[in-house]
Design brief:
Keywords: Transferase
Largest sheet: 6 strands, parallel
Order of helices and strands: EHEHEHEHEHHEHHEEHHHHHEHHEEHH
Number of domains: 2
Protein name: CoA-transferase III family protein
GO molecular function, one term: transferase activity
InterPro entries: CoA-transferase_III, CoA-Trfase_fam_III, CoA-Trfase_III_dom3_sf, CoA-Trfase_III_dom_1_sf
CATH topology of the largest domain: Rossmann fold
CATH superfamily of the largest domain: Crotonobetainyl-coa:carnitine coa-transferase, domain 1
Number of helices: 17
Amino acid sequence: MIASPDVTRPLAGVRIVEISSFVAVPLAGMTLAQLGAQVIRVDPIGGAADYHRWPQTADGVSIYWAGLNKGKRSVAADMRSADGQELVQRLIVDAGVLITNVAGRQWHSYETLSAMRPDLIHVEVWGRADGGTGVDYTVNAGIGFPLVTGPAEHTGPVNHVLPAWDVSCGLYTALAVVTALRHRDATGQGQQITIPLENVALATAGNLSFLSEAMINHTDRERIGNAVYGQYGQDFTSSDGVSFMVVTLTPRHFRDLTELTGTTEEVAALAESLGADFADEGERYRHREALTELFRPWFAAHTAAEITEALSARSVLWERYRTFAEAAADQRVTANPLFTELDQPRIGRYLAPGLPLAIDGSYPAPEPAPALGDHTAEVLREWLGLSAEEIAKLTDAGTVA
C-alpha cells in the first residue's frame, strides 16, 4: 500500500475493481474511493440492473446511481463474451482487489483469478451462506424485524424503508478490503472473503440480543409502536400538529421530563400506587403507557416552537419528526461540512455528502459519479497500456463501450 500525503485519503495508491449492482457493494466501493482508493466499476454494456434505478430525474437519469457511485471510474464491457471477460480479468489482476456481488461466475471466481495473481484479494457478497439468493427485504422477512415493527395493534408484517442489511453489508465489505490489504502488506498473501447478506443480518440480530432473547427467555419481542424497548421513549404531538420523539435513557433525563411537563407529583403518586421505582429504566418501560398519559397533555397544549424551546433547555433526548425534504433544507445539511456542492453531470448542482468521517478535522469531499463507460478508454490505456488503435478495435468489436 502506498502512503498518501493527504491524511483524508489513506488508501491512495490502492486499485480496486468492482462488479456490482444495487446497494451493498456499490456502497463499499464508494466508501473505499472516498478513502482514496482508485475504484473502477465495471458494468455490462447498457448498464447493470441498477443503472436506471429510481429515483430518477425528469430526464430519466438515475439519482440513485449518482448517489452510490461518487468518485469511481466506469468501464463498460461485454462480460458475456470471451474477449470481454479476458479484458476484465486483466483489469482485476492488475488491481489485485475485486469486490463483487455477482456470484457464481467462474471466470471471475477466486479460483480462476488467484491462479493469475496469487496475492489477490477477492471479496464476494452472497445472498445467503448456502449460496442461495437474497436481498435486503427477503432477508429481513426471515429474521423477525417486520413482525415487531409498526403499531402495537397491527397484526401483519411491516417492512422497513431503510435497507439496513445492505448498508451494514457494504460497510463490512469495505472493512474486509482494508483488513485484507493490511494482511497482504504483512504477509504477501491474498485472501478470499465471502460475506452473506443474511449472515450480516443474523449477526446483527444476535449481537443486539433479538435472537438471544428468544433463545434464553423463550419469548418473542413484542410490537411496541414508537416506544423504545427497555427504556422510556415515546412520540408526542404538539398543539399545531408537529410530532416529536422524546427519549429518557437516565434518571436525570426522566426527572427533567417530569419537571418540564409539570408532572413530578403525579409521577411520584403513580410510582407509589404501582409499587414502582422510576429510577429504574425497566420500570419506566413496563409502565410506559401510564407515564405517557401523564406527559401527553403538556405536549398537546404547546406549539412546536414552545416545545422546541423548552426541550432545548433540558437534558432530555429529543427530535422533531421531519420529512426528507425538510431535512434536506435544514442547516444540519446546508451548514454541515459533510456536505459540499457537487456539480453532477446529467443531473446538476446539489449538496452531496462525502465520507462521514472527519479525519484530522476534515471530511473527504464527494466527487461526481461517472456515467456508464465514461473512463473505459482511459482505464484501458493507463492500467493495461493499450494503444488508441487497440482500444478502437475493442470498441468496434463491441467488447467495450
